[in-house]
């Protein structure tokens, strides 16, 4: 250990590359934590094709400026897979981080900021850290002490909270009717003038608690632009880290809005302060005067174009940060940066198109802090540009390339009430989720249990005030399956009604128009058509000639739950069930099926459902010799496949 310096590592996955490829990663920390605290790493994507260690710093800065929320910043770089003199490689990483920081934080005082350089060679794979001060980059020190935090989420969220601000803006831009050459420039100028308003002394910020169920929900604070100090630099922000004292005087801190009753373990459960900016454009005069109108004729014919900006920013702050600092140093710069990012995307084509650009916030698995992603809603989530953009983000964040972790359905939802856990709302009805959780074992001796992965909703007869008793069991099983795809964020569509399912089958040509509004049964094949039509999901269909043959499929069903994890629809004769798991002893052949029965007609009472056997383990042949599946009926099993997508 040199000079008592210790690297504190919160990120669970520091090295994002595979196969020892040479790559550069940015180390992310926070101005509120000690300088050598690594919270996450992001892969550098904008670099020379021939040299991954030669970044395009301008493009990297543009990407990271929109991706990383205020309250976190770049504190160093990590070079992976390069062998040689470790000190020289560390200097290369430190220099890269310094160049990136100069672009990202040009206005900050960085002279006393230490930068981390990490090295992991392809031969040994050992991870080494070095540091250097921006005032003397040639003096690189070896940091031997590395501390890995056991509960990194607690380390971040017990200390901090979020600020959230939504600001829709309709910006009028006048352009010459007969000359479009200056249109883009006028749009850029109008947006830049708008950005200056965020520092207008007339601007007022109203701060209040986002979660209305919080014990501090009645509190609110008004901060005026004239009261803000815009000269605070990042080095001073560290005063509010681990060793900070409570702010002195009458200044209120973020903790004023933080509840003591709920422990935060992630971004969705964190205390969140809603910030609303307002501006008073009226001018008061000490003297009374008659109304006046000023006539300013335009020198040429002009057209009005309205640019629709929907700003939505979140920022991270420690709880003992004064609210005025949180607004001036975090929130306002975040609004300016987001407006700049949106301006650069919208302006070039604002005359020809009306882009529906919207920011979304995500906190995917393995990433300890939220990130912000911009999506063009007019494209749709399956449009190729959106898919490629998400694939690049997965690569930058080290996320798996076959999970939809950054789809809109997976965006952060704030102020979630604990009372709603395990319950979903659908057209005024509360739907139970994961009703099989806590059901005792099946009774199969020495069996291996394989279950559905993730969450689903229980759909059954008579829900939504709709009477489908006697014919709608397969529809309800399909609704349960589609709810699984929704809750795993593979889609954002609503669970379809019976009529919408019928309309989908008519639209693809499987049924005649008279099928819509009927009470006709559907089976596994129809379900596969609807899943393909609505979700683009493929299905495997397994046929058995008799219910007595179903136990022979247990090994295949167990593999499905282990590899795919989706609910299965079992259809036989006029009955349909949803299969949530199997318990199978490969040696003895003894097995049981975890059945979710859509024929239930009661209320959403979990005890009544479990005690009545509407969700539970069913032996193919019970202790009394009675068979659950009918020997004189054929059965089709629909096995939806988990999409390989981002």
Pick out its properties.
646 residues, Cytidine Deaminase, domain 2, Cathepsin B, Chain A, seven-stranded antiparallel sheet, six-stranded mixed sheet, 12 helices
What does this structure look like?
By secondary structure, the protein is α+β, with helices and mostly antiparallel strands. The protein contains 12 helices and 27 strands.
Short description:
With 646 residues, the chain is of the alpha+beta class. It has helices at 57-67, 86-104, 152-157, 183-196, 234-237, 323-346, 384-397, 473-487, 498-507, 524-535, 554-563, 606-611; strands spanning 6-9, 23-29, 37-38, 40-43, 47-48, 51-55, 73-80, 114-120, 127-133, 136-143, 145-148, 160-176, 203-209, 220-224, 272-279, 302-318, 357-362, 371-376, 423-426, 429-432, 448-451, 539-544, 568-572, 575-584, 591-596, 615-619, 635-640.
Distance between the termini: 42 Å
Mean pLDDT across all residues, rounded? 86
Task: Give the percentage of residues in beta strands.
Answer: 25-35%
Overall geometry: globular
Structural class: alpha+beta
Count of individual helical segments: 12
Give the uncertain stretches in residue-range form.
232-236, 242-250, 416-422
Quaternary state reads single chain
Strand count, sense and barrel status of the largest sheet are: 7 strands, antiparallel
- What is the CA-based Rg, rounded? 29 Å
How many strand elements? 27
Number of domains: 3
Q: Helix amount, in percent? A: 10-25%
């Amino acid at each position: 250990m040199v000079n008592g310096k210790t690297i504190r590592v919160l990120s669970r996955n520091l090295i994002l590359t595979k196969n020892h490829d040479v790559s550069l990663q940015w180390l992310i920390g926070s101005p509120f934590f000690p300088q050598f605290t690594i919270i996450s790493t992001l892969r550098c994507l904008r670099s020379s094709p021939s040299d991954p260690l030669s970044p395009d710093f301008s493009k990297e800065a543009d990407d990271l400026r929109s991706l990383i929320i205020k309250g976190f910043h770049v504190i160093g770089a990590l070079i992976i897979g390069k062998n040689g003199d470790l000190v020289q490689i560390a200097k290369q990483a430190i220099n890269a981080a310094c160049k990136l920081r100069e672009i990202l934080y040009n206005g900050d005082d960085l002279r006393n900021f230490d930068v981390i350089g990490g090295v992991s060679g392809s031969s040994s794979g050992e991870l080494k850290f070095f540091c250097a001060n921006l005032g003397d980059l040639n003096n690189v020190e070896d940091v031997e002490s590395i501390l890995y935090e056991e509960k990194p989420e607690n380390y971040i969220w017990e200390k901090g909270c979020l600020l959230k601000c939504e600001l829709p803006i309709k910006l009028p831009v006048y352009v010459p009717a007969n000359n479009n050459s200056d249109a883009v420039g006028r749009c850029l100028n109008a947006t830049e003038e708008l950005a200056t308003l965020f520092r207008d002394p007339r601007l007022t910020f109203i701060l209040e608690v986002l979660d209305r169920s919080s014990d501090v929900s009645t509190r609110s604070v008004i901060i005026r632009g004239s009261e803000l100090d815009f000269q605070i630099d990042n080095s001073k922000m560290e005063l509010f880290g681990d060793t900070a004292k409570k702010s002195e005087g009458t200044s209120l801190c973020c903790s004023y809005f933080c509840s003591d009753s709920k422990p935060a373990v992630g971004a969705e459960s964190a205390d969140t302060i809603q910030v609303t900016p307002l501006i008073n454009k009226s001018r008061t005069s000490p003297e009374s005067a008659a109304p006046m109108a000023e006539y300013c004729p335009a020198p040429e014919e002009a057209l009005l174009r309205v640019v629709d900006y929907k700003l939505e920013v979140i920022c991270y702050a420690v709880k003992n940060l004064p609210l005025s600092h949180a607004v001036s140093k975090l929130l306002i710069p975040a609004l300016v940066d987001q407006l700049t990012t949106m301006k650069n995307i919208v302006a070039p084509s604002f005359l020809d198109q009306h882009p529906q650009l919207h920011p979304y916030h995500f906190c995917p698995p393995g990433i300890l802090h939220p990130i912000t992603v911009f999506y063009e809603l007019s494209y749709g989530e399956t449009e190729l540009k959106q898919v490629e953009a998400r694939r690049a983000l997965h690569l930058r964040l080290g996320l798996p390339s076959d999970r939809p972790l950054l789809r809109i359905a997976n965006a952060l939802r704030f102020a979630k009430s604990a009372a709603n856990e395990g319950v979903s709302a659908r057209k005024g009805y509360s739907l139970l989720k994961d009703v099989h959780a806590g059901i005792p074992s099946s009774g199969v001796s020495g069996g291996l249990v394989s279950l559905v992965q993730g969450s689903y909703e229980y759909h059954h007869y008579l829900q939504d005030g709709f009477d489908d008793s006697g014919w709608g069991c397969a529809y309800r099983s399909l609704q349960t399956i589609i709810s699984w795809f929704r809750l795993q964020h593979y889609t954002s569509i609503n669970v379809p009604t019976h009529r919408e399912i019928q309309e989908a089958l008519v639209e693809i040509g499987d049924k005649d128009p008279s099928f819509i509004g009927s009470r006709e049964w559907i089976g596994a094949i129809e379900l596969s058509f609807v899943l393909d039509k609505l979700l683009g999901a493929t299905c495997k269909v397994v046929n058995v000639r008799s219910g007595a043959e179903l136990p022979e499929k247990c090994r295949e069903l167990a593999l499905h739950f282990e590899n795919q994890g989706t609910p299965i629809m079992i259809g036989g004769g006029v009955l349909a069930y949803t299969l949530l798991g199997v318990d199978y002893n490969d040696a003895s052949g003894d097995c049981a099926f975890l059945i979710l029965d859509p024929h239930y007609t009661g209320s959403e009472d979990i005890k009544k459902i479990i005690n009545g056997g509407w969700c539970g383990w069913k032996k193919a042949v019970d202790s009394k010799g009675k068979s659950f599946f009918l020997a004189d009926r054929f059965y089709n099993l629909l096995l939806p496949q988990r999409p390989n997508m981002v």
